[in-house]
Amino acid sequence: MNSFFKAAEECKQIRLSSHGYAYHRETVAPNAAVTSMTVVTKHSRSACVSGTSFGYSDADAWVDKGCRADFKICYAPVVKSRKQKNFQTFFHLLPPKRPYRIICIKSETF
User: Fold this and answer.
1) What is the pLDDT of residues 48-98, one digit of tens each?
2) Residue 21: pLDDT above 70?
3) Which residues of 25-52 are buried (b: 16+ CB within 10 A; e: fewer)?
């Protein structure tokens, strides 16, 4: 089997804090795409609501509005494909409960 199909999702627990109700962003793993983020233990009086006071984008996880918690963050390695002029396509594989599925993330570079 091609090594591309051996990419595996990994998870780790990370404590993130929005001190003074400020936005805070942290890279979870370089060359990876975060696939899920859940609260394990909340440490703040402020609410931790997905998409409002915590969330993720690409390889980063973020907190805001006073949310402080330990999060279980899962991510999959990103394998860069061949480049075309001014265009890149990235792939990562999510292994799991069902047969493999491939997610394609495309971004234009200028």
Assistant:
1) 999 999 999 989 999 999 999 999 999 998 766 555 444 444 444 444 444
2) yes
3) eeebbeebbbbebeeeeeebebebeeee
Are 37 and 55 in contact by the 8 Å Cβ rule? The answer is yes
Range of the domain at 92: 3-108
* Number of domains observed in the structure of the chain: 1
**Bridge partners for 50 per DSSP:** 54
Which residue, 106, 104, 82, 107, is CA-closest to 93?
Answer: 104
Is the pTM higher than 0.90? The answer reads no
Torsions phi, psi for 21 (to 5 deg): 65, 20
Structure tokens at 39: 């609260």
